[in-house]
Amino acid sequence: MKKMLSLLLASAMSLSLLAGCGGAPAPAQSNNPPAGGSSTSQGGSGTTDPTTPAGPIKVAALSSGYETTYPGMWQEVCDAFTAETGVEVQLILEKNLEDVIGPSMQGGDYPDAILCATGREKGLTEQFIKDKLIADITDVLSMTVPGESATVSSKLVPGFVGTNITNPYNDGKTYLAPMFYSPCGLFYNAGLFAEKGWTVPTTWDGMWELGDKAAAEGIALFTYPTTGYFDTFFPTLLYSVGGPDFFNKAMNYAEGVWDTDEAKQCFDVMSKLASYTAKVTPAQANDSDFTQNQQLILDNKALFMPNGTWIVGEMADAPRADGFQWGMCALPGGGSGTSASYCWLEQIWIPSGAANIDAGKQFVAFMYSDKAAEIFAKGGAAQPITGITDGMEGDNKIFYSIYDNGASAVMGGFAAYASVAGLGSVREVFFDPFNSLVSGSLTTDQWVENINTASDQMRANLLSE
């Protein structure tokens, strides 16, 4: 598994990509840029062994399904960091993280490290990227992991840095450090499939046939927690249909890319999928009710939903149908014949206006320690360091073996672009309209037309050196 994943992910390094993965949803955020802080993206000196411990430092982390699986996971990691370095940590751990830290950041009071992925409804990380308010942490890669003799870069699985997932400005510098990674795909009740004698489709035509069978029994083919989860689904669909070259063009809004045969095939799939989606889904596709859409899978009211491995912990205490058993499959092969699974990453980063950038970098380096990885693993979270999958068992062993079973690993998402008046986020342009496709208030042609118009602006305002 380790060797296979390394090879698959290393092949992704040649692509110019930006992470579009979202994870668990969050409330909406204002598009106004954060107040305070520096207008530059340069960080501190990157001292790895300060003679006097800095701090206390503030670490803000999203409380997700991993924390549900192992309560106290983040506090234990922070305590381990303090024990190793002497730097005290004030932990801010919230499900609505952006709401909690937003007001203080507007006043110029920034955490020294933030665990918040791109693709969330609030768009906090994207806003910091667009406004170049993220510190350069390239030197973290050469740091010695606190408490160990290895450097950060020597422990990372190849392919997790060096793309626009971590280097959004195409300037050869790293600004976002890769954290928990998860194979993403379509999750379903394997017990129901066994009971019905159904097989998981490997083509979209097979999907529609199964959808008709399920509909006859009052079961929808598809649901989704929120439209934010299409940040893994849609890029994977593009890759499976058009292969890596088409994927790369789409991620960078290449002129005419949405008028190609490959793009039309993808839009046809999305349009038809909308017609097979549980009708209650859009009304529940928000930060308060998204688990009700996930519950549709556990109650056998829908067959498939896009998600990541954190779903097991997130829904651990939810009721479920008799014989329920988690299953996960890659997206069916498209025009290229490639079955694919998105490799989703969370990111940890440092605001350039943080008061303790050097100590924040030490904290980021500690995230790749064996001690931190061991604690995170108790919550089912996998750090992108070599050997992390060796001790997996149960559901995670099945999920992470998806690349061993022939699925291509897809990394990255739509490239970052500068803030432009009237131009929405990637999520607002590409993914949120799916709710309207399901409800019938928007046609596919209108959606594609809006994407073409927005893509012209996005392409003209790509962030670069």
Instruction: Give the ordered list of helices and strands.
Output: HEHHEHEHHEHHEHHHHEHEEHHHEHHH
What is the 3D shape? globular
Rg from C-alpha positions? 21 Å
Query: Helix segment count?
Result: 19
CATH topology of the largest domain: D-Maltodextrin-Binding Protein, domain 2
| Low-pLDDT windows of residues | 1-52
Question: Helix proportion of residues, in percent?
Answer: 25-40%
Give an overview of the whole structure.
- The chain has two domains: 18-182 and 343-396, D-Maltodextrin-Binding Protein, domain 2, CATH 3.40.190; 184-342 and 423-460, Periplasmic binding protein-like II (D-Maltodextrin-Binding Protein, domain 2, 3-Layer(aba) Sandwich), CATH 3.40.190.10.
- Strands 1, 2, 3, 4, 5, 6, 7, 8 and 9 form a nine-stranded mixed β-sheet that branches.
- The radius of gyration is 21 Å and the shape is globular.
- Helix 3 (73-85) runs antiparallel to helix 15 and helix 10 (261-275) crosses helix 18 (433-439).
- It is an alpha/beta fold and 465 residues long.
- The two termini are 36 Å apart.
- Mean pLDDT is 87; it is low at 1-52.
- It is built from 19 helices and nine strands.
- The longest helix is centred in the middle third of the chain and has 22 residues, at 230-251.
- The protein has helices at residues 2-11, 65-69, 73-85, 97-106, 124-130, 152-155, 190-196, 204-215, 230-251, 261-275, 281-284, 290-298, 311-314, 357-366, 370-378, 394-400, 426-431, 433-439, 444-460; strands spanning 57-62, 89-94, 113-115, 177-189, 220-222, 302-308, 326-329, 340-349, 408-410.
- It is 38% helix and 12% strand.
